[in-house]
Design brief:
Elements (H helix, E strand, L loop, with lengths): L4 H13 L3 H4 L3 E11 L9 E3 L1 H15 E8 L6 E3 L2 E13 L5 E14 L5 E16 L4 H9 L5
Parallel strand pairs: 1-7
Antiparallel strand pairs: 1-2, 3-5, 4-5, 5-6, 6-7
């Protein structure tokens, strides 16, 4: 099912953005760990999340209660693979709307991933670091602006 890292990373974006947390939890090993490095005060996450179910809950279910029309994009389709089980400094961009005030959010940062090969040959995520460098809050813009931005980029 998840035989290569590129496919797994596409599934991560789709499941996280579309609030499919039950599927998202399946791409992480049960004892997976997600850590955060956040260089902005316009968004917050816990310092770390332990366990695939907790990860899926925070990154998908809770996140999608606060934001909608979430689309995350990889800034390069060439994943900077260190070896078969590690990808480092994968640039990303997210464009979304905050439900509370309808402000548009645009953020960027880096992902680092460590994968584990399972007995069945599939890869799963064992460690994931999310660095958020910028998270702009753009209040007062029409919803059409969000659609226009998202329509110009290949997803995921």
């Amino acid at each position: 099912m998840y035989k290569n890292a590129e496919y797994l990373l596409e599934k991560y974006v789709e499941e996280k953005d579309q609030d499919k947390f039950k599927i998202l939890e399946k791409i992480y090993v049960p004892n997976a760990k997600v850590t955060f490095e956040i260089d902005t005060d316009t968004i917050s996450f816990p310092t770390e999340i332990l366990g695939n179910k907790n990860i899926a809950q925070v990154l998908s279910a809770e996140f999608n209660r606060k934001y909608d029309h979430v689309q995350t994009y990889y800034l390069s389709r060439s994943f900077p693979q260190i070896n078969d089980f590690t990808i480092s400094n994968q640039g990303w961009l997210v464009i979304m709307r905050e439900k509370e005030d309808n402000s548009i959010r645009v953020g960027t940062g880096l992902y680092d991933w460590i994968f584990e090969k399972q007995v069945d040959g599939n890869l799963k995520i064992s460690q994931h670091n999310i660095s958020i460098g910028v998270m702009l809050c753009l209040p007062g813009l029409p919803f059409s602006f969000l659609n226009e931005l998202q329509s110009k980029l290949p997803y995921p």
